[in-house]
Fold:
Amino acid sequence: MTVMGTPRLRKEDPKLLTGENKFVDDIHVPGELWMGMVRSPMAHARVTSVDTSVAAGMDGVHAVYTGAELNDMGLWAAPLPCAWPVTDDMVNPPHYPVAAEEVHHVGEIVAVVLADTRYGAVDAAEVVEVEYEPLPVVPSIAAARDGDAVAHSDLDSNKAYHWPLIPDPDALEAAFASATHTIKAEFEQQRLIPAAMEPRGVLAVPSPAGGDVTLYSATQVPHILKVMIAATTGLSESKLRIVAPAVGGGFGAKLNVNPDELLSVTLANKLGRAIRWTETRSEAAFSTHQGRGQLQTIELAADGDGKLTGVRVHLDADMGAYMMLITPGVPLLGSFLYTGVYDVPAFGFTCDGYFTNLTPTDAYRGAGRPEASYAIERAMDLLANEVGVGPDEIRRRNYLAGGGHFENLETASTLVFDSGHYSPNLDAALELSGYDQLRAEQAKRRADGDTKHLGIGLCTYVEICGLAPSRALGGLNYGAGGWEHATVRFLPTGKVEVVSGSTPHGQGHETAWSMIVADKLGVDPDDVTVLHSDTAISPLGLDTYGSRSLSVGGVAIAVACDKVIDKAREIAAHQLEANPDDLDFEAGTFAVKGSPDKTMPIQAVAFGAFTAHDLPDGMEPNLQEQVTWDPPNFAFPFGSHVAVVEVDEETGGVELLDYTAIDDCGNQVNPLIVEGQVHGGIVQGVAQALWEGASYDADGNCRNPSLLDYLVPSAAEVPNMKLGSTTTPSTSNPLGVKGVGEAGTIGSAAAVINAVCDALSPMGITDMPMPASPATVWNAIQQAKNNNENGGGQ
Amino acid sequence: MIPAAFDYVEVDSAEAAIAALGQHGDEAKLMAGGHSLLPLMKFRLASPSVVIDIGRIADLSYINDAGDHVAIGALTKHRAVETNELLKSQVPMLAHVASQVGDPSVRHRGTIGGSIAHGDPASDLPAALLALGGSVVAKGPNGDRVIPAADLFTGFLETAVASDEMLTEIRVPKAAGAGWSYQKFNRRAQDWASVGVAAVRNNGASGVALVNMGPTPVVATAVQDALASGADVEAAAALAADGMSPPDDLNGDPAYRAHLAQVLVKRALTEAAA
Ligand SMILES: Cc1cc2nc3c(=O)[nH]c(=O)nc-3n(C[C@H](O)[C@H](O)[C@H](O)COP(=O)(O)OP(=O)(O)OC[C@H]3O[C@@H](n4cnc5c(N)ncnc54)[C@H](O)[C@@H]3O)c2cc1C
Structure:
């Protein structure tokens, strides 16, 4: 039976479509109290007084706590955690759920109200009177690096760390010294506000017997959260249960340990009342971490043919006001990928992390890798121009292994790529996009003097996923491992129950895991139930992020299935009176080789294991196996994207006319899910290129904190995408799978901006800041026209 | 996104609405479709202590042939304006402009009266009404009065409709054979216009009004005057930003908007002449 590899509708969808799912905000318990947050309107200030008396006296208000009062209550054993101190001397200012003395970004909590209703909590929060003494504000990464103001008044610099990865400095130096062509480019990765369909929310419920707390949280990481809440509150891990009910998207923004999570758990535990909170959209723009926030400098060295000889990169990375769970590590996740899919003999990377008085940054779809692929793929286009060849040709000249198939190849950035085969992938993308016809159409428009310019942009990306081999994480100073846990058990009825340590929040794990199990055990996918996202049911796990679920968690399930089959084989052999080696297992049935009538379905074996009436001597009853899979290597999916845009010279408007993506994520379990992931991923990257970006004024106020001004695109803004795939199985796991959750985002921003620059290249335009809004594009065109006029006059 | 507390009053006639306004004074706000008022209340930019719901007054939702003009009840939804056959044949621009408002869910809730009474410079329908030379009927404690669109928009989110009055009808002159164009430039399909232009050309007369080029929906007087004195499209369009004070926001600074207005007026006049 082969279920894997065939498109299959998701088990999850009927409940989503009929509104049957329960998200945190849908769950209610008697006696619950709502939190209302009093948030700082100042980006950097000393809190000189907090007067809670009016609020505390309002009807329905149970309590109001200031930061100082919460500290005095002894609720915190440690500050909010940062699990990734990237260097030994990294600066990590203490960060408590509620600020007591100094606030460091707009939206930081300075007091918490508890009230009977959500409206009451917000009304009371509005009348808490806080006095602030303004301090100098650091409103941008450039100000953090170049200005005099410090984001934390007790620090004397904004610099948090310096992290180098320069495997061979002499070789790098030599590459640039002897290069025929060099390219130097600077790019800004603007801050992005994650906008999952479901905002974050919490409900902490104390057990009626006391001592235990269950936290329902809209989180991607219930397992990590449990460990971290225990560590920061001093509550015993055994007394905490974390449940991620239906979760409506995360994209990294629900991969954290947040003040509201800690407040709800500790206050519920202290007061014996359920405590809840759901963020509003505007609150999310201040209080939930943001993505990206980097200034990049990339330099390429190449020989006369445009063959790369060296790549040198420096980042200034915006941490925001505090180090959250993996804030400092995000740029490092990209560090290894600045050489892209190319054969680069010499490589060097440095990153300086800086504090600003802005909302903290942390993981957002792709986390470091979209930034990396953007820089190298934009720079490759610049190199193509410099050398005078097409963007496809410059890529082919530099592909690893000459574009041919390879396995286990070490790169200059010290990684071993599991597998790749780049040339056929690019061929497929060019073919599907109609690349040659597009170039002809572009030439015609140019000859006609059309003011609607056609642009064609390529991006051939590689990404790193399957996070992660635990030892590799140890080498990066990360505070946890990268394994995943799975249990596969037959129930007496012959149905299968899977317990997954990976925790879905929209991806479709239940469907995919069922398909893996169906193939392995020869059962109907509908006979497989997947349990997850509740630490009481699934105590071991490391959750979902970094495109890791399938290539780590899914593989754990496959390996557990193999162990189930091994045990079942022993039992079947015993009962069929045959040698285990003489049994074939196919389509869910054991059969004795050469005796076609001596067979036993695995469900019958499972029932036998349950009754335990007739098992081999010494064998434990029941058919159930557990596996903790620690991957031996990462996986490296890749792909070729082609974006086609039309730029209106008169308005600066950019329209995305067409988009082609050929992704290679190794073997596919469910092509329908792959397609969905690629669609969403592409739109998220296109959004960074054309629409999204948190904008701040000089005082550190966000200028676009609502969906009115923060332009998340809808289906109306994107064309029907043309998708295809090639399949180069991974060598990092027995399923040959790689991962696809972030691929679209990693390829698309560069493809779109390459297309915009391609459209305007006759005017001499070589770069375009993101988001390429009409006003930005129009201004760039005016500047280019002025330059051309002035240049012409000299 | 959590509004402050308010009292809710539902009325079933314009007279009852005006009585309720008289009773509650400045503290009260009428609510039609709620699609401009409720967002303001959720951001706590507006905190009326009484909301008077006029959304269920059934007899103020109509589109009637009134001889030289079409009369539209204030509570007519954008969707009804967009799909109405009388408007499509007699005032096609208005039906088209209604189809450009927000997205389908907005058009099924928002009303033409609410859109005009709100007076948002970024809204589509007020500019269309200006370009078409329409008028509105305001009902107050002392009866009805007609206000020409040209006198309606008095300041940022302010209109000549008094706080004890309710807008009951919108009147648009028939213009079956007229050339027209509506140019809406926005960044996403459901957004308000960064800049918009409504243009009507009828037997030598021209109506041109701009969206989001100042504190109110505004007539492009300089363009209209130039056309009246015989200027060509190019020359008239160059005057699009004359006398305007466009806003500065993430969609563009005033200089960009001024340029955009010129481009869009040119496109609108060209299309309206074709
Ligand atoms: C997501 C979204 C997108 C939108 N996009 C657009 C767009 O692209 N273009 C656009 O033009 N609009 C847009 N709108 C606004 C929408 O068209 C509103 O519905 C409209 O502007 C107001 O109509 P309403 O019936 O909802 O008025 P309400 O919100 O009920 O009222 C608005 C104001 O007018 C007053 N008012 C209402 N009716 C009367 C009356 N009969 N007499 C006196 N005063 C009255 C109210 O007191 C209030 O002050 C959008 C709205 C949303 C939510």
In short: Chain A has a mean pLDDT of 96. The pocket of flavin-adenine dinucleotide is lined by residues B 29-37, 39, 74, 101-102, 106, 110-111, 113-115, 117-118, 123-125, 161, 166-167, 190, 192 (CB under 6 Å).
